[in-house]
Write a structure and sequence with these properties.
Distance between the termini: 23 Å
Order of helices and strands: HHEHEHEEHHH
Structural class: alpha+beta
Protein name: DUF1415 domain-containing protein
InterPro entries: DUF1415
Number of strands: 4
Number of domains: 1
Radius of gyration: 16 Å
C-alpha cells in the first residue's frame, strides 16, 4: 500500500504523540526523552502488509542506520499491516532471523509494539500489556551500542520492566487505554 503525504504525516504525528504520552510520559523507557530532544528518532511509515515486504523494509532501515549515525533508533510503523497479533509475532520472528542472517546481532535489536500486545501468560485485560501496546503495529529498531551507553548511567535497569508493569497495573486498564487511544485523536 502506498500512502500520500497527509496520511504519512498523520501517522507520524500520532506516533510521536504516543511516544511523548506513553513511552516518555509513563516513563516506560527512561532513555526515550533524550532521543526525542536530540531529534534522533526516525519515524518510517510502511505500507507493507506481507512478511517479506516488511522484512525487506526493516533490512533497508538497518542499512540506513549503518550509513547515518545521527539516527539513534527507528520506529517502522505499519498502519494497515499485521492487525492480528499472532501475525505480528510472526513478523517479529522473521525480522529477528534476518538480523541474525545479516550479521546484525550485537549491532541492532528489535523491540515490538502492537495495539493488541499481550505478554505470554497474561490475560488480555491485564493493564501491564499497555507497556507494549501502541497505536499501530510497529517494529522498534535500536542500536545496541546506544542501549549499552544509556544503561551505564541508569541505576538498576533490570528493574525497568517490573516498574513499568506495576505502574500500568496501578493506573488500570481504563486509564491506560484512554491515554493510548488519545494519541489517535491528534
Amino acid at each position: 500500500m502506498i500512502y500520500g503525504p497527509e496520511k504519512i504525516a498523520q501517522v507520524i504525528t500520532q506516533t510521536q504523540h504516543w511516544v511523548r504520552e506513553l513511552v516518555i510520559g509513563c516513563n516506560f523507557c527512561p532513555f526515550a526523552s533524550r532521543e526525542v530532544k536530540r531529534d534522533s528518532i526516525r519515524y518510517q511509515v510502511s505500507g507493507a502488509t506481507t512478511l517479506k515486504a516488511a522484512n525487506d523494509e526493516l533490512l533497508a532501515e538497518c542499512r540506513l542506520l549503518d550509513k547515518d549515525p545521527a539516527i539513534a533508533t527507528t520506529l517502522l510503523i505499519f498502519p494497515d499491516g499485521f492487525p492480528v497479533f499472532r501475525d505480528y509475532l510472526d513478523l517479529v520472528a522473521v525480522t529477528e532471523k534476518m538480523i541474525r542472517q545479516q550479521k546484525y546481532t550485537g549491532i541492532y535489536q528489535i523491540a515490538g509494539f502492537h495495539p493488541l500486545y499481550q505478554f505470554a501468560g497474561s490475560s488480555l485485560q491485564d493493564a501491564a500489556n499497555y507497556t507494549n501496546r501502541s497505536i499501530y503495529p510497529m517494529l522498534h529498531l535500536l542500536r545496541e551500542e546506544e542501549i549499552e551507553k544509556a544503561l551505564q548511567h541508569y541505576p538498576h535497569p533490570e528493574k525497568i520492566p517490573e516498574r513499568n508493569v506495576n505502574f500500568a497495573r496501578e493506573k488500570g486498564m481504563a486509564y491506560m487505554k484512554m491515554l493510548r487511544d488519545s494519541c489517535l485523536a491528534t
